[in-house]
Amino acid sequence: MSAPPPRHGHARRVVDVWAHNQEEELARIRDLTRGFPFAAVAVRHDGHHDPAASYPNTLEGSYAAVRSGAERAASAQVALALATRDGELAVGGRVWRFHLGSGGAGGLADPRRVCAGIRAHARAVMTRGALVTWDGAGDVPYLVRHAVAGGGSLPRRRDEFLRMCGACFPALYDLRVLAEWTTPSGHPPPLAAALAGGGSGALFRAFLARAQDAWFCEVSTAYNAFLYGLGAADTEDLVYYKVEKAKREERDRRFREFMLQAHGEDYVRNLRFL
Fold it and tell me: Superkingdom of this entry's organism (predicted)?
């Protein structure tokens, strides 16, 4: 996910962060938390690989793949941008690019300190901001592993990992899910239009615009910690809703099929409820 283009005429300015300036930049991020409650993050690490190459196309298989990749990662780059609700980036368009590696070898920044700093920002703004990612399944496991698990092993089960995500990042949104998945009530994906009109920057701006209206309250629960390719940590109520929705859709399909056979396409087309 590339950082969103800043507004108000500011040019984007990338600041590279290594071990020698890590604490200075983390302190700057802490100071900016109150004024810039939204964070966009992207992670690129050397453990990435194609889940389909080794695992079946299932949610559990996808999680096993991304967990394996995150746990193998020895070095990474983490890009971070902070923004206001109207899309203005912090410090005149600053985007942090952290160069991370275990043990600080080669002057690399400490992944545990950096990921903990991102987590601290997310928790400090949880009632008025959010952490946003374009590739949640690729980005979040790395962050959680270093911020919560101390660089060790992630939970073996997908549902345990997703609950850990919710505890670590109370307001976490995957732009790809918002752009491609319908709402629980069956409405089109909230950011589908933005996806058609541009890349990740356009999606992030559209997310910020929507976060200012009633839409955000309506879908915040449904989409929070819902990661593309990994799903969401289903509660008992959500599982019940999904089961009942599937039953209702199957019942409607059978009724429509019966009406088509009994009365024909023209008759059914005029029935609004079908």
Answer: Eukaryota
Distance CA 189, CA 187 (A): 7
This model's pTM is above 0.85 = no
Which CA distances in Å does 94 have to 30, 31, 88, 124, 185?
14, 14, 10, 20, 38
pLDDT of 57 reads 67
Residue 121 Rama label (left phi>0; alpha psi -120 to 50; beta): alpha
- How far apart CA 121 and CA 109 sit, in angstroms, is 18
Q: Which residues contact 142 (CB under 8 A, 6 or more apart)?
A: 43, 45, 47, 70, 73, 76, 78, 111, 115
List of residues 6+ apart from 205 with CB closer than 8 A: 4, 87, 194
Segment 19-36, tens digit of pLDDT: 999 999 999 999 999 999
**What per-residue string of b and e applies to 91-119 under the rule 16 or more CB within 10 Å gives b?**
bebbbbbbbbbeebeeebbbbbbbbbbbb
DSSP state for residue 110 in the 8-state scheme: P
Which two three-digit tokens encode residue 184? 């629980």
Q: How confident is the model at residue 49 (pLDDT cuts 50, 70, 90)?
A: low
pLDDT of residue 214: 62
Tokens of residue 1, six digits:
């996910």
CA dist 120 and 170 (Å) reads: 11
φ, ψ of residue 5 in degrees (nearest 5): -60, 135
Write down how long the chain is. 274
How far apart CA 215 and CA 213 sit, in angstroms, is 5
Residue 25 identity: E
